[in-house]
Amino acid sequence: MSQPQSRRELARLITRIENGERGAQAALNELYKRTGRARVIGITGAPGSGKSSLVAELIKDLRSQPAPPQVAVVAVDPSSPFSGGAILGDRIRMRDLFGDPGVFIRSMASRGELGGIASATADVVSVLDAYGFDVIIIETVGAGQLEVDVARIAQTVIVVEAPGSGDEVQAVKAGILEIADVVVVNKADRDGVAQTIAALRSALDPSANGSGHHAAERPDVQQEADLAHPVHVWHIPIIKASALNHEGIDAVLIALEQHAEYLAESGEAERRRLQRIESDIQARLRELLLKRAMQRIPPDEYRRLLAASVLRNIHPAEAAESLLESLQS
Ligand SMILES: Nc1nc2c(ncn2[C@@H]2O[C@H](COP(=O)(O)OP(=O)(O)OP(=O)(O)O)[C@@H](O)[C@H]2O)c(=O)[nH]1
Ligand SMILES: [Mg+2]
Predict the structure, then answer these.
(1) Atom 27 of ligand 1: nearest residue by CA position
(2) What is the pLDDT along the chain (329 residues), one digit of tens a residue?
(3) How far is 130 from 261, CA to CA, in rounded Å?
(4) H helices of 64-143, where?
(5) What ligand 1 atom has the least distance to the C-alpha of 49?
(6) What's the gap in Å between 87 CA and the centre of ligand 2?
(7) Hey, whose CA ends up nearest to atom 14 of ligand 1?
(8) Which of 48, 123, 133, 242 is geometrically suited to a Cys-Cys bond with 189, CB 3.0 to 4.6 A?
């Protein structure tokens, strides 16, 4: 798999998926049977919180294990239509990892279509999984809906926060704290860490926000690994780290291992998989049905109803009902 020939083949297939090429689906159908082995981790957080730096440090540790896993990184940037500054930054930050044949890094830029990038990312993850990558990390910049969609692809989601000004938690502002399985307060070498942790803890506390999530109940921030005792309730850990100083990286890896254990032992892995595949099928079915409907609806009828809706003569829901009826007649 790490031969340059198949790496080139892999890169080419990913490009075809990104471009939505027709032939790519046949390849995806073929390799789907070989997926389902990889550990898929999502990492998100406000711009500049240190996601790429953390990913680089996590990979360094993973790759120095006795039996190092093959690791792939997919950096998804919804805000940049081309390979812009952020992605260039990732490349520089992850520079140390280049030259390691066990690490594959790929950036994906959005072409503006939200649903498109999420399903393209899911397909790219499938390809990497089928190609034998043991760990696949998806990095996205916290910007709302895309992160929620990415969370459905990943088994475990890490939300990265950096110490900021006062009580303001960026992850709450971006609406991404609710998808966190693990919270990392990076840049712990800076001031304001305790304040950020306190703000995060109160945001995660269900009695404070009524979200029904399990808050970090233990008073200590760094939680100890206890892999001998499977956990059936997940307490979202808040981990202090400094990617700059390679601190807290081991604690993040332990939390990831614990979460994997929790997912397997609690049946949550199975539940999430079912949910993910079901919503994937529904999204694709919706797309197919719409495409088919648009092919069959008489264009004049479509334009007539659209114009009537624009003039507020009929409600868009009523227009949709009429179009559906025109299909059945
Ligand atoms: N002081 C300090 N700086 C850090 C730490 N980790 C990352 N940085 C710096 O923060 C800046 C942003 O780091 P990145 O790793 O690119 O952050 P990111 O979240 O991937 O950024 P985007 O992908 O652009 O959203 C860089 O200048 C890093 O050197 C840390 O632990 N401490
Ligand atoms: Mg980054």
Answers:
(1) 48
(2) 545 568 888 989 998 888 878 789 999 999 999 999 999 999 999 888 999 999 999 999 999 999 999 999 998 875 554 444 445 455 555 666 767 889 998 888 655 455 577 888 899 999 999 999 999 999 988 667 777 888 889 999 999 999 986 667 888 877 888 899 999 999 999 999 999 999 999 999 866 544 444 444 444 444 455 555 555 889 999 999 999 999 999 999 999 999 999 999 999 999 999 998 998 899 889 888 998 999 999 999 999 999 999 999 999 999 999 999 988 87
(3) 22
(4) 85-93, 114-130
(5) 19
(6) 7
(7) 50
(8) 242
- Nearest atom, ligand 1, residue 242 CA: 31
Mutating to test ligand 1, I would choose from 53, 90, 147 the residue with most ligand atoms within 8 A of its C-beta, which is 53
Which position has the token pair 């009695």? 207
Compute the distance between CA of residue 184 and CA of residue 162 in angstroms, rounded to an integer: 8
Strands (E), the chain: 39-45, 71-77, 103-109, 135-141, 156-161, 182-185, 238-240
Kindly state if the Cβ of 107 falls inside 6 Å of ligand 1.
no
Side chain identity, residue 122: A
- Residue 189: CB within 6 Å of ligand 1? yes
User: In angstroms, what is the C-alpha Rg of the chain?
Assistant: 22
Q: Which ligand is nearest to the CA of 53?
A: 1
CA distance 157 to 216: 16
What is the residue whose two structure tokens read 């860490």?
193
Residue 310 is which amino acid?
V
Going from the Cα of 324 to the center of ligand 2, the distance in angstroms, rounded, reads 45
